[in-house]
Amino acid sequence: MIAMRTPLVELDGDEMTRVIWQLVKDQLIAPFVDLRTEYYDLGLENRERTADQVTVDAANAILRLGVGVKCATITPNADRVAEYGLSQMWKSPNGTIRAILDGTVFRAPILVRGIEPLIPTWTSPITIARHAYGDIYRNVELRTAAGEKAELVVTARDGAERRVTIHEFDGDGIVQGVHNTDASIAAFAHSCFAYALDTGQDIWFGAKDTISKTYDHRFKDIFAEVFAQYRERFAESGISYSYTLIDDAVARVVRSSGGFIWACKNYDGDVMSDMVATAFGSLGMMSSVLVSPTGAWEYEAAHGTVTRHFYKHRAGEPTSTNSVATIFAWTGALAKRGELDSLPELTAFAHSLEAAVKDTIAAGELTGDLFGLSTLGAKRKLGTQEFIAAIASRLA
Ligand code: NAP
Ligand code: MG
Known about the structure:
Radius of gyration: 23 Å
Shape: globular
Strand order of the largest sheet: 2-1-3-14-13-4-5-12-10-11
Bound molecules: NADP nicotinamide-adenine-dinucleotide phosphate, magnesium ion
Number of domains: 3
Distance between the termini: 12 Å
Number of helices: 15
């Protein structure tokens, strides 16, 4: 039995991933690790019961203890308010946690034999880092009418105004205002460079500074300023940082063999992460980690609670839900805890569990989503529980 020192912050969640969460703990971790966690139940019922205080408490616990592992959670919409009898439409837990950690999300595909990327040269994972603040996600926008003039006005504390004309409309149109802050861009840059060092990967950043000579150019400049603090450590680690126009970055990514981090502005990251995830295979194979600029780590699967499968499970029907990204959230957190607490056997266990997952898939024992994608000759479709049991038998 492997001992732990500092507890992991455990954030339980909803629906099918909550079912998988318990199976993974019971069958893949508890038999080998004397698991210590500080448990927060972010299941929607408990968020309602605690008026969402549990989410805030969990995020603060991650800042305090350094490493968390999170199950997927429901972000309520109008349907969920009715389904769960909610007193209000609670905010996205991931949004709340990200705001408290001030972090950057890194998403990387898990590569396995038999699931070939749609781009054949992508032999190593491409990790996307998405800046999660501002730009169009915090915009204001209006429709305009013929004869109207749109202006950009900035007012100083003393009332002094700066004003530029955006457009004088001859016909009907639209106008939009967006912003970002130096502090948020710098925090993003710090998280990106720290993660590149942590994982030993090159990092690229692309924006549209040739067209947006003030806005996007500011991103480029801040990245360059922050990088000055990392230059030496990058050289020692043999990794590099490069800035290029976003168009050029896209072209280079497609021609690449993977194995690097691609830092993206908010919108680019939103769009490109879906492109990269699809090209690498299944959503069930995307891992995700939120890294705060102060060095707190939260690991999770990139997918949601897999509601459609949960309704089948609840109705007693068989399911074949992919647990790989959830397992890798646990292994990421355990490996990081092992590293921070100088417990190499804990980190080694996490890597053995990852290897057992990959061996299971390479042996053709697959969940339904992977069965459709696998190029292996001999393959077998397993149920949700069976797949986890197959990994457990390899691990033992
Ligand atoms: P989802 O849970 O990611 O599932 C969308 C579809 O993708 C599933 O119906 C399934 O397709 C496939 N899929 C995703 N993960 C899979 C897995 N592990 N194994 C097999 N197939 C998988 O997204 P959603 O249905 O849009 O959202 C469901 C709930 O999750 C929502 O309440 C949303 O708020 C929440 N959500 C949470 C997070 C988070 O906590 N990080 C992220 C996204 C969404 P098939 O049905 O075709 O098999
Ligand atoms: Mg998207």
